[in-house]
Specification:
Structural class: mainly alpha
Radius of gyration: 15 Å
Transmembrane segments: 12-37, 57-78
Keywords: Membrane, Transmembrane, Transmembrane helix
Shape: elongated
Mean pLDDT: 88
Protein name: DUF4190 domain-containing protein
Distance between the termini: 47 Å
Order of helices and strands: HHH
Number of domains: 1
Helix content: over 70%
Largest sheet: none
Strand content: under 5%
Length: 87
């Protein structure tokens, strides 16, 4: 299994398994970004070697989903700072 799939799967799994999104995006963002970088490296290597590109593409898609979710939540939190303070 490619490392891009592992990192991308972990970044997506955090969103579905952990209800504390305030902490999840701090873990999912670096995992997703690492999966994106690793997926692009693996995709280029597979293209040069003529190997199957299915796993690097799967890793890129999973990493993209995890990264976009983390960035969207981060933007939401930073544009609504009053939600963090519960009186």
């Amino acid at each position: 299994m490619s490392l891009a799939v592992v990192f991308g799967g972990a970044s997506v799994a955090f969103w579905f398994c952990c209800p504390f999104w305030m902490l999840v995006w701090l873990l999912a963002l670096p995992l997703g970004l690492t999966g994106l970088v690793r997926g692009s490296i693996e995709y280029r290597a597979a293209s040069r070697q003529g190997a199957s590109r299915a796993q690097p593409l799967t890793g890129l898609v999973l990493s993209s989903v995890g990264t976009v979710a983390a960035v969207a939540y981060m933007v939401f939190v930073f544009t609504h700072p009053d939600l963090l303070i519960q009186e």
